[in-house]
């Protein structure tokens, strides 16, 4: 093995990794990472990425070329540039070049300003993050440096509540044994704290001088996006120490309850796991944009066809007729044949007819989108008064896409829930507490409740804790042994750490918000957890301090779904206390008494039906002899070299049996206000909602029931938890079979054959009868997203009404969104509030950020932002619908009026020798879309037959003018009079058309429509006035033409006839359609009119009674390993910092408005036979 010169010889003796060659890391070829502490010169050789992040697209030098390049990728912009070049050729153009260059420059400028503004805010956000201050150890002293100057190999100091600046190897901390507590909400959405620990050889490096001499080198895996894995080795002092994820602090985490810690930078900037998971910023284009590009291509093809027809006509006319008039109409010098004349005529007509798709279309689209974005910003119903936060449209290009959303992908924590755990109800020895009843025995609603329970008797009570049922406190005060044992269990069976700053000021360090809520409840009811050591727990029971000997903690994990403690009380009695999932604990109870079990089960059903998170509590007395033997067996199992976990589980299983049921707890993980109603409305709108969360399965399922995504009326909820490809494929196959075989019938009544071709499976599955839901875990999803199984997963998931993906990484969230985008061709929306949601927000067609408790990363990456999930229904069902309908009507009307305008040139070509002469003068052509019809069409427009209108607009005046005379008997027909008549007819027809189809009249509509008509006549008379002729005699030669033409009654009769013939068929058709076959919108509009004339009737929602189905409400966001940590005593030194995150906060209840229960008689549930409690 070759040892590099820079590597100390002593490390070579300790052993080195096999590959010492160095690759460039920044462009994907890095195979391993090397970082030597306090040695920037050595680390700079590897050219690692700096800690500066960049989400912006442009800088001052690249903005103009890059932005123009992007804009000219739009088909329309390239098309208009091509037309501009044509107009610069004198032999081809019959219109001035300014008619195209001015609108083109205007469109490019507006888009460039918008893009520059968006990128400015990205630069501003980047600068804010990159200039956060960090304490870096440089040349033996701590110096304040901005984040962007932090380099790989630097040692930095973090203090409590600070964000981690880069991916760090934890070296030491203020806590014993190098422990520190972090919150990973920005990474995985979980706000419960996690523990990280420094390796023993560095945990004592607490002072600056020793850290400055630290020269260890880390050799580890290259940058990747795996949040839960890290593999590396530290070489220091002839030692080779393995490193794992437990030793790492990742960028985006927040240091909690730890005064300080030191870390070695391993990954910086774009190499950090947070940035590796953030995904690339994608250019989002709406379906309307794609449709417009397609329409431009089709219309350009139509334009070419018309140009060919007219060019052929020109060649024939010049060959047959034009040669006779050479003396009067000579060809240009470059024209030497009829064929070449036709060729030039083709390009001339391409220029003249290009107004079918004028560039003003794109200006108008951007103006409409800008208006819709301001409507969202100004919407008072999307303003959160509590946070003083309005809704914000951070983009102006996606408003109409909101009305086409089919799939919503939502985060859970902080998006659907507030992540505030509240001790809501409990069942103690067969009696349920938590509901309040009035004097008539009816259950009181929240607004009707009396004052909350007064805990002033307890000086150690948490003042923020609120409970409404006073009977529970009375039971405790009167010495009910079951109530005392219930709260004794809650005060002993946990892994919470207690801190007391001042006398009586207790702060709890809870590893999960569930435990914090339970221990706080026990504290307020008189059983105050005061302190602990590795072997004791001290509880103040009704004012008396009692110290229990802690004999064992049987730790929680996802398989056991329970935790237990074994304690010895001061009298010497040994008792096991256990809390866990009802599905697990109810099977481990002593067979009697059955009545208590039945009553508690009913209470659990009731709590689960209300969406509460439930735990069952039980206890068991142990004698000294049995405990001694069991403790010996446990010790042997813990020392086993193989199958240690299985052996411990077997020993735990042995003691956790024949327990006595004590009761159950019900904790409310408070949903955000209006979540169930919003999900119900979106489901009615045929929008499918998928929840993608980093939380555990039980918690996510419980929230699914709370927010009514999952219901007890569903046919079946499929749970996929396979750990291998084969297991996942089999579980998905069984789910599809159950959907198809119940009972072999689809929703439309057709029978499905047993063998079905896989290609037709999606359509068959999506038609199945019944409502299904799918719950899949992260490790199963990893297999399901593989190329050979992703379609099977998608088919199964899309056939379900609700999908919940648990324990998913940020990258998996993006992969699920991309899968639906790719194969379903549906518009997707992703909504979240944390940095772990950024990737899916960027991937979805529309990204929505919730400005919640997990920072602003999601908001910065989003297209729309607001403070509560409930505003999503208004964003989609109100603003989205309005934007989509308005944009569709606008496009249809725009093409209608421009076809009507442009096709007149086509018909005129047959009467002007195909000479590419225009019917209208060039000022009318220029102003038609910019002034005369722009404002009305911005107000609203609908589809009609444009070619039909153009035929009538041209041929009716043509027919009249062929024989008509003026008042003095002279011929009426001349070119300018004909042009004025056709132009006036056209403007009046399109204005009347839009007036007929305006569904909601406002002053703005009236002003735009009739004001545009007035502006047309004003400009028309001005252009034919003496004043303009005197100033510009070469430009305005037809003095008085408009006045003379419009003074003739024949002209006004022609205009009236043209308008009537164009409009009457449309009016007649719509009248018949409304009378004979009204649409849904017509019916709704009629119902609204009827409702205005009648007195409003209020209907009360009645709560649907629960079925007798049994489901668990168990959910417990706890992490394995804390029990062992506590028993080891490693975290026993009390920190001087407070944990405030878990405390319950009062919040107005939203649940009552939707789920009013039927009034039922007040009465205590029948208590089961009491088993005497000892001690």
Automatic annotation (TrEMBL):
Biased composition (Basic and acidic residues): 1-12
Location in or out of the cell: Endomembrane system; Membrane
Catalytically driven reaction(s): ATP + H2O + phospholipidSide 1 = ADP + phosphate + phospholipidSide 2
A GO term from the CC aspect: trans-Golgi network
Domain of life: Eukaryota
Cofactor(s), by name: Mg(2+)
Molecular function in Gene Ontology: ATP binding; ATP hydrolysis activity; flippase activity; magnesium ion binding; phospholipid transporter activity
GO biological process, one term: phospholipid translocation
Predominant cellular place of this UniProt entry's protein: membrane
Membrane topology of the entry: Multi-pass membrane protein
Binding site for ATP: 411-413, 515, 556, 579, 613, 693-695, 807, 813, 836-837
Domain P-type ATPase C-terminal: 859-945
UniProt keyword terms in alphabetical order: ATP-binding, Magnesium, Membrane, Metal-binding, Nucleotide-binding, Translocase, Transmembrane, Transmembrane helix, Transport
Active-site residues from the entry: 411
Main enzyme class: translocase
Family membership: Belongs to the cation transport ATPase (P-type) (TC 3.A.3) family. Type IV subfamily.
PANTHER family in the cross-refs: PHOSPHOLIPID-TRANSPORTING ATPASE ID, PROBABLE PHOSPHOLIPID-TRANSPORTING ATPASE
Name of protein: Phospholipid-transporting ATPase
Organism of derivation: Enhydra lutris kenyoni (northern sea otter)
Record lineage: Eukaryota, Metazoa, Chordata, Craniata, Vertebrata
Gene field: LOC111138842
């Amino acid at each position: 093995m070759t040892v590099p010169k820079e590597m100390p010889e002593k490390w070579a003796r300790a052993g080195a990794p096999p590959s010492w060659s160095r690759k460039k890391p920044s462009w994907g070829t890095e195979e391993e990472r090397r970082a030597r502490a306090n040695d920037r010169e050595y680390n700079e050789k590897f050219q690692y990425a700096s800690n500066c992040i960049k989400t912006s697209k442009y800088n001052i030098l690249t903005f103009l070329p890059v932005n123009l390049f992007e804009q000219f990728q739009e088909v329309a912009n390239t098309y208009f540039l091509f037309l501009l070049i044509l107009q610069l050729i004198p032999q081809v153009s019959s219109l001035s070049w300014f008619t195209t260059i001015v609108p083109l420059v205007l469109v490019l400028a507006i888009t460039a300003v918008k893009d520059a503004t968006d990128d400015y805010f990205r630069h501003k956000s980047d600068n804010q993050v990159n200039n956060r201050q960090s304490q870096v150890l440089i040349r033996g002293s701590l110096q304040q440096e901005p984040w962007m100057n932090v380099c790989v190999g630097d040692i930095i100091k973090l203090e409590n509540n600070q964000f981690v600046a880069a991916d760090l190897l934890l070296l030491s901390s203020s806590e014993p044994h190098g422990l520190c507590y972090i919150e990973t909400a920005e990474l995985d959405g979980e706000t419960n704290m996690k523990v990280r620990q420094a390796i023993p050889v560095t945990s004592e490096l607490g002072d600056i001088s020793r850290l400055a001499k630290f020269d260890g080198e880390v050799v580890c895996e290259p940058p990747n996006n795996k949040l839960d894995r890290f593999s590396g080795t530290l070489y220091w002092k002839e030692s080779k120490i393995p490193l794992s994820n437990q030793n790492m602090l990742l960028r985006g985490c927040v240091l909690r309850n730890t005064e300080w810690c030191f870390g070695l930078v391993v990954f910086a900037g774009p190499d950090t796991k947070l940035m590796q998971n953030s995904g690339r910023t994608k250019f989002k284009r709406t379906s309307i944009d794609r449709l417009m590009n397609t329409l431009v291509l089709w219309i350009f093809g139509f334009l070419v066809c018309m140009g060919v027809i007219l060019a052929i006509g020109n060649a024939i006319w010049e060959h047959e007729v034009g040669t006779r008039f050479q003396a009067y109409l000579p060809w240009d010098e470059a024209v030497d044949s009829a064929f070449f004349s036709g060729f030039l005529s083709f390009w001339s007509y391409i220029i003249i007819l290009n107004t079918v798709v004028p560039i003003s279309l794109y200006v108008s689209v951007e103006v409409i989108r800008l208006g819709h974005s301001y409507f969202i910003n100004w919407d008072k119903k999307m303003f959160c008064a509590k946070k003083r936060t309005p809704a914000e449209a951070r983009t102006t290009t996606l408003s109409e896409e909101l009305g086409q959303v089919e799939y919503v992908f939502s985060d859970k924590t902080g998006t659907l829930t507030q992540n505030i755990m509240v001790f809501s109800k409990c069942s103690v020895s067969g009696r349920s507490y938590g509901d309040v009843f009035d004097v008539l025995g009816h259950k009181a609603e929240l607004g009707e409740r009396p004052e909350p329970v007064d805990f002033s008797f307890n000086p150690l009570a948490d003042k923020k804790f609120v409970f409404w049922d006073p009977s529970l406190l009375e039971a405790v005060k009167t010495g009910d042994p079951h109530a005392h044992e219930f709260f004794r269990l809650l005060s002993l069976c946990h892994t919470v750490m207690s801190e007391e700053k001042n006398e009586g000021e207790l702060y709890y360090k809870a590893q999960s918000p569930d435990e914090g809520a339970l221990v706080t409840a026990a504290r307020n009811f008189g059983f105050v957890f005061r302190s602990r050591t590795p072997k004791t727990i001290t509880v103040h029971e009704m004012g008396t301090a009692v110290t229990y000997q802690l004999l064992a903690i049987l730790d929680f994990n996802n398989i056991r779904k329970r935790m237990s403690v074994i304690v010895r009380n001061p009298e010497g009695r040994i008792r096991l206390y256990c809390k866990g999932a009802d599905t697990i604990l109810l099977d481990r109870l002593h067979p009697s008494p059955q009545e208590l079990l039945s009553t508690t089960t009913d209470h659990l059903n009731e709590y689960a039906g209300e969406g509460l998170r439930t735990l069952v509590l039980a206890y068991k007395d142990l004698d000294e002899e049995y405990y001694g033997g069991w403790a010996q067996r446990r010790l042997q199992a813990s020392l086993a070299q193989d199958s240690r976990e299985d052996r411990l589980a077997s020993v735990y299983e042995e003691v956790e049996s024949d327990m006595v049921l004590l009761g159950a707890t019900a904790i409310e993980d408070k949903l955000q206000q209006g979540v169930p109603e919003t999900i119900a409305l979106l489901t009615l709108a045929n929008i499918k909602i998928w929840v993608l969360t980093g939380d555990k399965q039980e918690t996510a399922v419980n929230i699914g029931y709370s927010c009514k995504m999952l219901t007890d009326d569903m046919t079946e909820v499929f749970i996929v938890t396979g750990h291998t490809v084969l297991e996942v494929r089999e579980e998905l196959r069984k789910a599809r079979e159950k959907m198809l075989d119940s009972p072999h019938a689809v929703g439309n009544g057709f029978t499905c054959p047993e063998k079905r071709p896989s290609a037709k499976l999606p359509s068959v599955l999506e038609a199945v009868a019944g409502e299904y839901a799918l719950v899949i875990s992260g490790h199963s999803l990893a297999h399901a997203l593989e190329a050979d199984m992703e379609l099977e997963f998608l088919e199964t998931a899309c056939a379900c009404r609700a999908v919940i993906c648990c324990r998913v990484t940020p990258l998996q969230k993006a992969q699920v969104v991309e899968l639906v985008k790719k194969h379903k061709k549906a518009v997707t929306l992703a909504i979240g509030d944390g940095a772990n949601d950024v990737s899916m927000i960027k991937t979805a067609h529309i990204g929505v950020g919730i400005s919640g408790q997990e920072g602003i990363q999601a908001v910065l990456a989003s297209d729309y932002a607001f403070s509560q999930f409930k505003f999503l229904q208004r964003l989609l069902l109100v603003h989205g619908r309005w934007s989509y309908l308005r944009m569709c009507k606008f496009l249809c009307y725009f093409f209608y009026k421009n076809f009507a305008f442009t096709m007149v040139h086509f018909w005129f070509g047959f009467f002007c020798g195909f000479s590419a002469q225009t019917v209208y003068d060039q000022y009318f052509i220029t102003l038609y879309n910019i002034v005369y019809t722009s404002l009305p069409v911005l107000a609203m427009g609908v589809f009609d037959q444009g070619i039909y209108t153009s035929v009538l607009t041209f041929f009716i005046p043509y027919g009249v003018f062929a024989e008509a005379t003026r008042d003095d008997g002279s011929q009426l027909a001349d070119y300018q009079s004909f042009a004025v008549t056709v132009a006036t007819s056209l403007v009046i027809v399109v204005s009347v058309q839009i007036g007929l189809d305006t569904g909601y009249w406002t002053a703005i509509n009236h002003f735009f429509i009739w004001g545009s008509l007035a502006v047309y006549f004003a400009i028309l008379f001005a252009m034919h006035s003496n004043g303009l002729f005197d100033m510009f005699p070469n430009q305005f030669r037809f003095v008085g033409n408009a006045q003379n033409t419009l003074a003739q009654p024949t002209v006004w009769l022609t205009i009236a006839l043209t308008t009537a013939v164009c409009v009457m068929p449309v009016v007649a058709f719509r009248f018949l359609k409304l009378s004979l076959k009204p649409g849904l919108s017509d019916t709704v509009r009629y119902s609204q009119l009827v409702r205005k004339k009648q007195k409003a009737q209020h209907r009360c929602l009645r709560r649907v009674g629960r079925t007798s189905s049994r489901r668990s409400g168990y959910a417990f966001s706890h992490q394995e390993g804390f029990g062992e940590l506590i028993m080891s005593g490693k975290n026993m030194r009390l920190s001087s910092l407070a944990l405030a995150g878990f405390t319950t906060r009062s919040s107005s209840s939203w649940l009552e408005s939707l789920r009013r229960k039927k009034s039922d008689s007040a009465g205590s549930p029948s208590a089961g036979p009491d088993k005497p409690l000892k001690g």
